[in-house]
Amino acid sequence: MSLERFGAIDVGSNAIRLNISCVFKKREDSPPRFKQEVSLRMPIRLGEDVFTDGFISQTKASQLIESMKAFRSILNVYRPQSYMACATSAMRDAKNGLALIQKLSL
């Protein structure tokens, strides 16, 4: 049986999420199967700041940074072969979004 583990982080306007899943095949000729191992959601609501004021407040930036640190610890435990983080419009549209992204390098 082959087994691979992958992670995904979604930095959304309403919440950030971490998902880690295993992809495995019982036999080489069988279709892949997926088993979700971790699913976490942190309701930080970046969009509240960005869509009203145009930037992410220090409070929400700190919550995001601490959440990403926690996600990093979980990724270290599960050791996925690969993972990726993506951000939606709140992070992209925020005047301070790029500066915050630079602080978040995992």
Would you spell out the secondary-structure blueprint of this structure?
Blueprint: E1 2-11, E2 16-25, E3 33-42, H1 46-53, H2 58-78, E4 82-87, H3 89-93, H4 97-103
Parallel strand pairs: 1-4
Antiparallel strand pairs: 1-2, 2-3
Short characterization:
The chain is of the alpha+beta class.
Give a verbal description of the structure:
- The protein is built from four helices and four strands, in the order E-E-E-H-H-E-H-H.
- The mean pLDDT is 93.
- The longest helix is centred in the middle third of the chain and has 21 residues, at 58-78.
- It is elongated and about 55 Å long.
- A hairpin with a 4-residue loop joins strand 1 (2-11) and strand 2.
- The protein is an alpha+beta fold and 106 residues long.
- It has helices at 46-53, 58-78, 89-93, 97-103, and strands spanning 2-11, 16-25, 33-42, 82-87.
- The chain has a four-stranded mixed beta sheet with strand order 3-2-1-4.
- The two termini are 30 Å apart.
